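[job 0412] stage=fold_complex status=start
inputs:
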Amino acid sequence: MTFDEISTNDWQAMDAAHHMAPFTDYGDLRPKGARIITHAEGHYIYDSDGNRILDGMAGLWCVNVGYGRPELVEAAAAQMTKLPYYNNFFRTSNQPVAELSAKLAGITPDGLNNVFYANSGSEANDTIIRMVRHYWALEGKPEKRVIISREFGYHGSTIMSASMGGMSGMHEQAANEPDFAHIRPPYGFLHQGNQDEAEFAANAASWLEDKIIEIGASNVAAFVAEPIQGAGGVIVPPAGYFKHIQEICRRHDILFVADEVITGFGRTGQWFASQTMELEPDMMALAKGLTSGYVPMSAVMVGDRVANKLVADGGEFYHGFTYSGHPVAAAVALANLELIEREDMITRVREDTGPYLAEALAPLAEHRIVGEIRTFGVLAAIELVKSKDGPEMFEHTGATGAICRDHAIDRGLMMRAVRDAMILSPALTYSRADIDETVRIAAQALDATADQLGL
Ligand SMILES: *Cc1c(COP(=O)(O)O)cnc(C)c1O
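[job 0412] stage=fold_complex status=done
writing structure:
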């Protein structure tokens, strides 16, 4: 039998019987089975029942150049033929990795000139945790171990990266290591109240200083933050927030780390949000858009302060992965970056589709179950509320978001729900017509959700 002769039901049964999917409630999924995605092209995914779904999430915030780009496929095939694998442990390296490292040093903010490779954002953040603590030990301050991050921050799902993240559900499932602390995010919709933007920015940043003082700066290694909190609900900070944050980090001699796993590679209208927001991180985590998700790869950009110390006094850094600096992944990353440049995708996000997405979504803010629309580049959130007065949030957080998501998918749009916020993170190649289609279906999904809830 070929793939096409097997029915959807059979695929679903085979999958449900054996596959433990990530972030999945097995008791809930197994009786129904998963949607089987068979192929994708451009900005559309297709399932085994022949449904065509516009992918408003670019996979999982990662397929920045869209699906089906032959340049990436050919780069992978050519590299697999020439050198499919060799390790970088034995004083060996490979051509794609050397070239990619120079390229990343060139496009990331000044001072980030060194790259450590891994396979996922989680591993990149685990690497950062080890490197930061090792750095302070080399500086003669081994007690500087605590890493501060934010509630609703997402830094991955290994035990350490999930402990660093601010997802309480993950902490409850054996990912709550000591020496991590969390502060409230600059989530204006919940916490701004009557403050103007500048006041709220200063106030939200002061939560970091309060926490540093509580723990003692001599115990704090780093503050780690996504420039825009993605999986936490596309939380866009008020203007000026990070200026205060960086001053606080400098004042207390704490490293500042930007997790740009989502915001990197063009999504905010520059190569990195650090450039859009004028950040000067000491280190940076990169993944997702690095290869547009075609193959796994992540990277840690290491600033000169930390890298120079490791070079001068570090001895061997006892850390790495079999596939650190994988030649095929590096070749795909290079082809991906070249495509982003050749098609001028970042300018397009900055000058055309980013502003157009904001403009096209704006009217949805009037909808009776919408409390707020947030956008930044090609990232967006539609915050759902029970009532605009207050606003009043839904009692069972997440239930309404899931209803709205299902209505959107039924109508041909893949949107993700984070709590009760609907999220969009399309490819950089998404067109104005794709945005129009997205907003049209999103509006229908909002109506259907409100009707179902009797609102
Ligand atoms: C997805 C994500 C990660 C984790 O990446 P994985 O490849 O899933 O391990 C880390 N940080 C941020 C900001 C992310 O969005």
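[job 0412] summary: The chain has two domains: 35-65+344-453, 71-342.
[job 0412] exit 0
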